[in-house]
Amino acid sequence: MCGIVGYIGEQQAAPILLDGLSKLEYRGYDSAGMAVYNGKEIDMVKSMGKLKVLEEMTHGGSTLPGFSGIGHTRWATHGSPTDVNAHPHYNKDSSIVVVHNGIIENYMKLRRKLEGKGYQFVSETDTEVLAHLLDYYYKGDPLDAISKVMYWVEGSYALGILFQDFPGEIYAVRKDSPLIAGQGKDGNFIASDVPAILKYTRDVYFIENQEIVKVTKDSLNFYNIDKEEVQKESSRIEWDISAAEKEGYEYFMLKEIYEQPKAVMDTLHPRLKDQDIVIEELGMTDEEILAVSKIYIVACGSAYHTGVTAKYVFEGLARIPVEVDLASEFRYRRPIFQPGTLVIIVSQSGETADSLAALREAKSCGVRTLGIVNVVGSSIAREADNVLYTWAGPEIAVATTKAYSTQLIAQYLLALKFAKVRNEIDDSQFQSMLYDLEKLPDQIEFLLGNKEKIQHFANRYLATEHVFFIGRGIDYAISLEGSLKLKEISYIHSEAYAAGELKHGTISLIEQDTLVVALVTQKELYKKTLSNMQEVRTRGAFVMAVTNAGNKEVEKSADYVIYLPETNPYFTNSLAVIPLQLFSYYVSLGKGLDVDKPRNLAKSVTVE
Ligand code: F6R
């Protein structure tokens, strides 16, 4: 994820910026850059690749002399990871320079508007729009220009800004993307995250949404969007650097679980426009969507599980037949493609060897391909005919959580879009589903509020040896993910079963106190799953159920119930997976395991 550091004070800025950026490396990035005021103008150096490249280019910062500057590590979202797309970005005469974290949702509209006024863009980024927009509004008062830009820009941002006319000042502003200001001994700081400046100060101000901070070497002043000064209290950071990297969370996995409302929002929002779904990057006309006769969703592991859910959503809503394939199987099974086939490859890393091979196999047969990928510029993103990015940000924990949630969102959006274009749903159904989609981030947030209850429950199962997850339809797809999460980080044997299949074999494994987790979110299948729960319960199982709020009936067949907020049945996976992730996390934590790095597993599986 992108990182920001800024410094103004009595020391040389560039070495401090490099040091600060190095403390953000753990977050993942693909390019880095710095801008420093040299006493006359603003100098800038940026490059794709690791921070080492920037260090070498500037000889540890010594070729960028000056006492104020801003630095950035970029995790590409808009535009591939290149030198030109790296931050900072200049305005036309290099007198204003910007670094940015977040996503500007209306950047295309703003870009067209600015191009119409003669502004020339050199990068593919959404950030460059901000540099030119600041230029457009700047009439000698930085605060005024920033507040005007804030009124125009939609999306999330944390910005660090230098104005050549105000060499003794750094400005920063945020909306929905973290930003702090730090008070040092011989200078002051801005940063996206505490670790970047912890070596220099523990006294920080947390900037609130739509607040602006003006930083000089000996003062910090805060303003609201209307340029009125606001008073703020500083906080003393007591964490050490490794806790600070995780923002106080014990493990990255928990941090990433908690980032899901934002990740879902970032993936969803830019594609919802004027009560419609607009997916420009899909590159398909309505005629081409109408011509789709079959979809293959191909992926590995958790990404494959999102495909299992998406099959129900595509088939149910858009009435297009879907086959979901494990990439390792698909690549060797010589599938028979018919005209109008679309192959969707789902991958967080974009580098999974089997998924990449499956993509190449499909392409070699002349089939249209679409990547749903998290890492911009990765192999699958580059090679697929089109790519729809999930904007989850980098995932560090090996077990996926937020990437999984955003993969679901991307596929819901596609299925809904296809259903609408193909006239399979009417406008009122479409609007009501958009409404339900928009509620998901808050509903996920709500479920995260229950973590103590789930931790308490998880602590009872630290010594258990076998767990079974059961469900029907989409609930079966959720079971697959719940089971994988548990086994990969807790080393407890678990299996997911389509509930109706139990009595064809697996039920013989149920003993006294075996934990069975039943997913019961699909109304038309309630009764069927309830009778499967009864079957295992009468054989001694302890049944934990995850169901929709109001389904009190379930209490007769379960020993422990977790209720989910109401949503459209097609979207319940996005909610039901949250308690299952938390359950796995707390079992692993309780067993004293390394939650983020489970044995034998790698984050990106680049071998067959
Ligand atoms: C499980 C997990 C893996 C990945 C799988 C695919 O928590 O993370 O099962 O989902 O290895 O990886 P990507 O999505 O990078 O292709």
Describe the structure concisely for a colleague.
With 608 residues, this protein is of the alpha/beta class. The chain has an eight-stranded antiparallel β-sheet, covered by helices on one side.
Protein described:
35% of the residues lie in helices and 23% in strands. By secondary structure, the chain is α/β, with parallel strands linked by helices. An eight-stranded antiparallel β-sheet has the order 3-2-4-1-10-9-11-15, covered by helices on one side. A seven-stranded antiparallel β-sheet has the order 5-6-7-8-12-13-14, with helices on one face. The chain has a five-stranded parallel β-sheet with strand order 19-18-20-21-22, with helices on both faces. Strand 2 and strand 3 form a beta hairpin. Helix 10 packs parallel to helix 14 and helix 10 runs antiparallel to helix 17. The longest helix has 22 residues. The chain is globular, with a radius of gyration of 25 Å. The mean pLDDT is 95. Fructose -6-phosphate (F6R) binds next to helix 10 and helix 17. Fructose -6-phosphate binds next to helix 10 and helix 17.
* Radius of gyration over all CA atoms, rounded: 25 Å
Secondary structural class: alpha/beta
Low-confidence stretches: none
- Mean pLDDT, all residues: 95
Tally of DSSP β-strands = 27
Helicity, as a percent range: 25-40%
The tally of helices reads: 19
Q: Please outline the major beta sheet.
A: 8 strands, antiparallel
**Termini gap:** 28 Å
Task: Note the quaternary state here.
Answer: single chain
Strand order of the largest sheet: 3-2-4-1-10-9-11-15
Distinct bound molecules? fructose -6-phosphate
Net shape? globular
Into which percentage range does the β-strand content fall? 15-25%
